[in-house]
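Pair request: fold both.
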Amino acid sequence: MVSSDDEISVLMNKKMKDLQRKFNALIELKKINKPIILSDSNFDIEKSKYPLLLVDFWASWCGPCKVVLPIIEQLAQEYTGKVVFAKINVDENPILSKKFGIQSIPTMILFKYGEVIDIIIGALPRGQIESKLRNYLEK
């Protein structure tokens, strides 16, 4: 028979591990000041690590993607510690492209601890991308 003290101890240990995971993610978050590269193989692990993750689906031949690239790089520096930015090359990662139904690039998907919370399609100006981010930073 399991006592209530044992149940409380198990719950406390589980909660401590969860808090440690979140703390470690926040420490790592403070160091990321440029877009990280995600792929079909590492996406599932990486997407849940960060409180806020903006993933840019792009291709090297895409003109609008080239317009968005410097915006993403600037925002990654300016929002270090608040938002992690990532890039996924759709030509090299067909599984993710299919999973998220990417039909137009650039497409940016915003995740909160691994859950999709918003989608941005097209080469929007910096102000519009930043406005979307601010909506979720304030919550």
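--- second member of the pair ---
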Amino acid sequence: MEIQTRNEANATVVTITGRLDAVTAPEYEATVQQLIAGGSIRLVIDFAGLDYISSAGLRGLLVTAKLLKAKGGLVRFATVEGTVKEVFDISGFGSIFQMDATVAASLAALA
């Protein structure tokens, strides 16, 4: 897994590539915790390069939402496609989280 972050005008975009699973979820969670501790409370998680997500990865996303809620922040998911989208639909995450077709759409929704 690779995680890249960049600051946009109104949010921090977190791009995840590869796999988000039991091995990589702790790294994802640590990255998000550092961002939130540093004051980034509006996040867009970009899944365009994510090939696979496990239940541990889903748990990491719930941790993200919980941490942001405690700080009055928001999270939106962008470019959730393919098998990752199927996992979101089966697990019910598609109805829990706000998802957008593109990062630009997520950023616009947070504006």
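Observation on the second member. The two ends are 29 Å apart (CA to CA).
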